[in-house]
Amino acid sequence: MEVGIVGGTGALGRGLARRWLVAGVDVRLGSRDASRGQAAADELRAELPDAAGQVVGVDNLGACEAPVVVLAVPYEGLDAVLEPLAPAVEGRIVVSAVNPLAFDAHGPYNEPVAEGSVAQACAARLPGARMTAAFHSVSSTALKRLDTPLEDDVPVFGDDTEAVDAVATLANRIDGVRSYPAGALRLAAPLEGLTAVIIAVNKRHKAHVGLRLSRLTPR
Ligand SMILES: NC(=O)c1ccc[n+]([C@@H]2O[C@H](COP(=O)([O-])OP(=O)(O)OC[C@H]3O[C@@H](n4cnc5c(N)ncnc54)[C@H](OP(=O)(O)O)[C@@H]3O)[C@@H](O)[C@H]2O)c1
Predict the structure, then answer these.
(1) 0.85 exceeded by the pTM?
(2) Deepest in the core among 35, 150, 179, 207, taking most CB within 10 A?
């Protein structure tokens, strides 16, 4: 199993990479600058000498050579990141973890997205991709603490059921994650929006909370 991470040098990208590497998943860590991707990959290799998975540092286009590609970049600047990737992700499974977050004096809030959700905006810009969305509320700080299993739900959204199942399988490789198909791609919007609430709660209570839906036994 191999996953590519666009924006793999960042907080979420590195956090997911750590967890997947220890679980035996290979990672292509992408960056706008391949040398930054390589530096991040070197750091992960040094930090996780016994990891069962292999990590390589590449540019964002190189990350798209994996069968599953996670978008882990800020909403701001997303269009510029996606434009050169469109031909490379034809037929590949792409997962948007992007939240339309912005911050002002009152804290986090959501930017309006004309397409309805960031996931739908990505689908419009990557028309050949098998678009899905997941990981919106998984804390990068919690991902970093490898000695503590996550206690997080990772609902996966998408209109391609095979792609959604593949992403849920990949998410479930992370210790403590409960991932499952959750609904159509457009339903990513409420989850993208919930992240601002989670950040506000974390700030107020000095916590790193995650999402857990009660009384669910996934089928
Ligand atoms: N952090 C979390 O806990 C978390 C959890 C769930 C979801 N998310 C979502 O995941 C995405 C990434 O979050 P993050 O905290 O990992 O972000 P981040 O660390 O600020 O950025 C991730 C990477 O994106 C690239 N990048 C930064 N600014 C950019 C820009 N203006 N245009 C293009 N590329 C840029 C950088 O890589 P290079 O400079 O190497 O290209 C950076 O290392 C966001 O949309 C966020 O809402 C984050």
Answers:
(1) yes
(2) 179
